[in-house]
Amino acid sequence: MLLEFSVGNYLSFREKKTLSLVASSISDHKETNIINSERHTLLKGAVIYGANASGKSNFIRAMSTMKRIVMLSFNQSSTKPLDVAPFLLNTETEKSPSHFEVLFEILSVRYRYGFEVTNKEIVAEWLYESKKNAEKLLYIRQGDGIDVSVSYKEGMNLEDKTRNNALFLSVVDQFNGVIAKRIMKWFDNFIAISGLTHENYEMVTFKMLDNKNTAKSLGDFYDKLDLGFDGLSISKEKFDPKRIPEDAPETLVKLLIKDLEGAYRFKIKALHKKFDKKNKVVGEVEFDMRSQESAGTNKVFNISGPIFDVLHDGGVLVIDELDSSLHPLMTLAITRLFNSKKDNPNNAQLIFTTHDTNLLDDRYAKIRRDQVYFVEKDKYGASDLYSLVEYREEDGSKVRKDRSFESDYIQGRYGAIPYIGDITKILKEWQGK
Question: Would you kindly state where each structural domain of the chain is located, as residue ranges?
C-alpha cells in the first residue's frame, strides 16, 4: 500500500512536493474511505484538481517515470538516456538531478525507497526498512559509491555489477534478492494510465473478460452503468499470416510472423435489442464497439480492465484525466468502486486528476478533505501541490467539513483554477472582432 509519493526538480515541479495517503485525524467517511493496516491508517485514494497547464499531468508523469526507471533500468544499454527532464526555468535546477521517492508498506513492513537521476545516470539511491518504528538503512548510493548494510545480505558483492544508468535495486532483483523482488512486485502493481489515450489499455480489458474469475465483475459493472447495450460478444482468433497484405515487404512479413506467432486478435461487439413496430423484442443486433459505440462507452470499456485488475489483485492505480469523455455519474461510479468494501476487498488505491467539480459535492462523492489535492503554478512557472485538509483560511483555521467545497473551489477560494478575468469584457472583445 502506498503511503507517500514525492517528486522534486522534475518538469514543472521545482521544489520537492509530496502526496500523502496517510489519513489525517479528521472523522470524514472513516467507514468507507480508510484502510486500517497493522501500522497505519491509510486513504483509499486521492483526487487532484488544478487549472490547465498547472502541472497535474506532470505529477502523474512523475509517478509513471519512477516506475519506468525501476522496471527497465537493468535491461537497457549503458549508453541509453533515462529520459528525465528537470525544472528548466531556473539556472539552479536545469542541470541538477530529479528527485523521486516513495514510502510504502508490504506485509506490515514499511519501506522508503528513492533515487536522484539525471538524463544520463543515477546520482543517488537509497532504501530504508522499518519493521517497527525506527527506520533501518539497507543501502545508500552516492555517485559511484554504494554502501550496503551488513544486514542487507542480498545486496552484498553486487556493487561493482551496477552500471551508472541502472538502479542497484534492479541489480539485486536480477540476483533473486528476496526484498528486492518484493519491492519490484510492488512497483509492478503500481499502474499509471492516461484517460486521454485509453485505447492503449483495451487488451487488458479483453484479457480480464476472457478470464472467468474476473469477467463477472466487469459485466456487473457495465450493467450498473447502463451503457446502452444489453451484453457483449467477444471472440478471438489466432494470428493468420495469410491476412498480411500480399504487397507487404518481405522483411516486414518475416518480422510480423516472428512477433505475432501464437498471438490472438480480439473482436468485441455490443449487443442491442431489436424491436418490431409494436416495440416487442424480436432479436438482437451487434454493434462494433470501436466504430458504433460512443467515445465515453469505449473509454469505460478500455479502462475497466486496468481498474478491475487493480481491484482484483490490490495495488495502486493512477489515472490522468479520468473524467475525459465520461459523464460525471460514470466518474463517480469508478471512485465508489475503490471506496467499497465489497468491490475493493484487497485495499487497492486510486489516484487521479480531474476537472469534474461534482466530486467535491459531499452529498454524492463522499470524498474526505485529506483526499483532495490542488496543483497551482506560481509566477516563476513552478508547480505547488497541497491538500484541502492543509489549506488555511485567512484567520488561520482549517476548512470545515460543512463547507460547500465545490462552490468554494469554483469561486477560487482554494486557488488552483484558471484566471480568465472579467468574462463579460472578454466576450465583448470577441464580438467586436
Answer: 2-189+353-387, 201-312
